[in-house]
Structures are given as C-alpha cells and as structure tokens.
Amino acid sequence: MAKVKNKNLRTLISYIMLTFGCMLAALALETFLIPNTILDGGVTGISIIISKLTDIPLSILVLLVNIPFMYIGYKNLGKNFLIRTIYSVTVFSLSLSYFNLLEPFTEEMLLATVYGGVLLGIGVGIVIHFGGCVDGTESVAIVVSKKSSFSVGQVVLMFNLIIYTVAGFMFGFDRAMFSLLTYVITFKVIDFVSEGLEQAKAALIVTDKGTSLSKEIYNRLGRTTTTIKGKGLISGEKEVLYCVLTRIEVYELNRIIDEMDESAFVTILDVQDIIGDHIKSTNKIKKLGKN
C-alpha cells in the first residue's frame, strides 16, 4: 500500500510541476515575447502568426492547432503521453488567456528576447522533464526521425526556420532575427532544465524480465533493445538491455519499467554521437520478423 501512495504522491507532484511549467511558459510569451512581436517556434509560433492575422485568441489557437500533433504523439508515445499532453496544453492555453490581461514587462527588444527566452525555456523544460508537452512539433519530429536520417533536433530546427522566414516577410526580418535568438536561448535553457531537446539517451536495464520488457518497449516506444547476458555478484544471472532513445521517451521508459519490473536496475546515460545504422523504422523490424 505504501508503494501505491508513493506512486500517487509522485504523480501529484508531477502534475503540480506540469502546471507550474505551463504557467511560466505562458507568462514569458504574454508579458515578454508576443507584445514585442517575438515569435516562439513550433505550433505556438504558427498560432501566434494566425492570431495576429485573424485576431482569434492565441489560447484557442494553441488548443486547436495542437490537436493533430497530439494524435500523432499518442500513436507513437502512448496513452500516458497523450493524457499529460492534453493536460499541459489545456493549462498552457488557460494561462495564456489569463496572462494576456497583464501589461508587458518591457518594450526593450533585447530584454524581452533574453528574459522571455530564459523563462520560456525554464517553463517548457519543466513540462518536458515531467512527461508533458505544450508543443506537438517534437512528437512529429520523433516520427520523422525514426523514418529518416535526421535527428529530432534537426527536424525541429528546420520546421522553426520555415516559421521564422515567414515571420520575417510578415513582420520584418529584425523580428525574425530576434525570434531566432529567442529560440537559441530557449533551446539552451531547455537543455539545462530537461537535459536536452535532441540529445540521445542510452538506457542500461538490468532485469530478470528481458524478453517481456523488450517487447513492451518496442510496442510502446518503437525502440529496439540489445540483450546482453550478465551476472551479478549476489543476484546471479541477469539480462542487461541496452536501448537508445530520445529524452522525451525517457519518462515513458521509466513508466514501462515501473509497471513491469520494479526490481530492475536502470541507468540512463548521455549519448554524444551515434555511428552506424541505428534501426529507427519499424518497417525494418517487421521485415526481420518475417525472415
């Protein structure tokens, strides 16, 4: 029973932090960036552009534009990701509506860029760290990354460069350059808070349930694992699973392990580079299974 209580407490804390992160990100947008026509990237950036062209409230657009992205995230990252993303986007949208009533903190472009970028990065980093998402671009980027040679970060960057180019033609290229600077600052802060937007992670899982864990990781994350035979000094024969994944998938991996083998020992490592033909596409797995 105590373990169930701990899980409930852990879940409660994670949702409190999701709420705080969403509110902080919304505060940065409405009091620093948007009043100075400095755009965020991704879905939020698209929503800001549409809002300025149509006068539709940004809070409503963020919800509507994120819907197809949330569905893609659900298909590739599972039900838990969908629940937390729906919660995060809803809180983010409500916070945008509330903070829209506040006066801008500054009209100085450089101050707005730096402080807005830092606050936005902290907020988004907290949300991602606790398994949520306020911008569905990354979930699509994960899908593209699995089926191409591009990393998650490269896909997001290309997507944002298109948005900033459009913003340059619409609002002036000085605004586009400030927006790009904000993106760089936000990216670095997210890197500090949640350990990187695109940085690959390697999981080493010492378990007695290697086969079932491997299948569940593949079913829910689409990631393959390499099984290594191991032997503990006290615990005896064990299986060691090695899996490379993205930072946004680490939370879901922890949930899988927590549900299936709470006695497993897990180490998450940073991966500086990946060399070789790392299998990303599930089509390759299906072909291997037929042979």
Key descriptive features of the protein:
291 residues; alpha+beta; Alpha-Beta Plaits; 2 domains; four-stranded antiparallel β-sheet; 11 helices; 4 strands; elongated
The first-to-last residue Cα distance is 46 Å
- Largest pleated sheet: 4 strands, antiparallel
Which blocks of ≥5 consecutive residues have pLDDT under 50? 279-291
Number of domains: 2
Rg over alpha carbons:
20 Å
- Estimate what percentage of residues fall within beta strands: 5-15%
The count of β-strands is 4
Which strand order do you get reading across the main beta sheet? 2-3-1-4
Supply the helix-strand structural class.
Answer: alpha+beta
| Discrete helix count | 11
3D structure, described in words:
The chain has eleven helices and four strands. Helix 1 crosses helix 4 (79-99), helix 2 (42-54) runs parallel beside helix 7 and helix 5 packs parallel to helix 8. The protein has helices at residues 2-33, 42-54, 58-77, 79-99, 109-129, 137-146, 152-171, 173-194, 210-221, 247-260, 282-290; strands at 200-207, 226-232, 236-246, 265-271. It has two domains: 2-194, no CATH class; 200-290, Alpha-Beta Plaits, CATH 3.30.70. It starts with a helix and ends with a helix. By secondary structure, it is an alpha+beta fold. It has a four-stranded antiparallel beta sheet.
Secondary structure layout:
Layout: H1 2-33, H2 42-54, H3 58-77, H4 79-99, H5 109-129, H6 137-146, H7 152-171, H8 173-194, E1 200-207, H9 210-221, E2 226-232, E3 236-246, H10 247-260, E4 265-271, H11 282-290
Antiparallel strand pairs: 1-3, 1-4, 2-3
